[in-house]
């Protein structure tokens, strides 16, 4: 059994499209007892609408590690979630909203502008600060910043895509190296922790290239060469 953990946007979902060959190769890998999962900064709800009928992942690490689900008889079951402290979150929103657009992502599949819009018992998975620049994290005692194209995702300081990978390895009692592939800054945390790290040929960001041992054209090439 092998486990492949793949980023979503820019890795298997590029310019709003899937490659049919990628989808077929992923299904073949799973049919051969391989475990295929998606690791993404997106919420699970945002991801689900795009992959329904195309990819049936064995696990999903969403919100950069804050929300984890596993496939249980073709239904996704939540096995972990880490939400944010609302009082401290208000501080970070007040600090950055003067200069940058901000959105709040909740556990009820909502994207809202203000904590005042939260419903009773609604929790926050992550905060998005929309900026093309790297920003100094003035709240590093509680929150971590995860840069992607045009946005900085703010989550709990102890959470990352890599902590999600560690959870999945324990869940499956898997003591080997996971095969990981990604294309952007927010993938570095889990790419650098495995010797089986991949990025795509089109990627030009040096910080991503430097932590990856291999480069491939697409997920199909990865599976065909290394996933068997």
Automatic annotation (TrEMBL):
Coiled-coil segments: none
A Pfam family the protein falls into: Hydrolase_3
Alphabetically ordered keywords of this record: Hydrolase
GO molecular function, a single term: magnesium ion binding
A GO-annotated cellular component: cytosol
UniProt name for this protein: HAD hydrolase, family IIB
Protein's organism: Anaerococcus prevotii ACS-065-V-Col13
């Amino acid at each position: 059994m092998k486990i492949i953990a793949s980023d979503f946007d820019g890795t298997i979902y590029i310019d709003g499209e899937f490659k049919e060959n990628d989808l077929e190769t992923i299904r073949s890998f799973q049919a051969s007892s391989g475990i295929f999962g998606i690791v993404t900064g997106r919420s699970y709800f945002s991801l689900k609408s795009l992959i329904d009928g195309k990819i049936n992942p064995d696990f999903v690490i969403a919100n950069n590690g804050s929300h984890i689900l596993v496939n249980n008889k073709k239904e996704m079951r939540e096995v972990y979630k880490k939400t944010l402290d609302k009082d401290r979150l208000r501080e970070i929103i007040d600090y950055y909203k003067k200069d940058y657009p901000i959105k709040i992502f909740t556990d009820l599949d909502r994207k809202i502008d203000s904590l005042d819009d939260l419903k009773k018992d609604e929790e926050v998975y992550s905060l998005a600060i929309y900026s093309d620049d790297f920003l100094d994290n003035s709240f590093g005692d509680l929150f971590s910043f995860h840069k992607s194209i045009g946005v900085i995702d703010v989550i709990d300081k102890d959470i990352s895509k890599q902590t999600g990978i560690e959870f999945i390895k324990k869940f499956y009692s898997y003591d080997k190296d996971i095969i990981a592939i990604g294309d952007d800054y927010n993938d570095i945390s889990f790419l650098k922790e495995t010797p089986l790290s991949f990025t795509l040929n089109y990627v030009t960001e040096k910080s991503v290239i430097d932590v990856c041992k291999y480069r491939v054209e697409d997920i199909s090439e990865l599976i065909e060469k290394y996933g068997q």
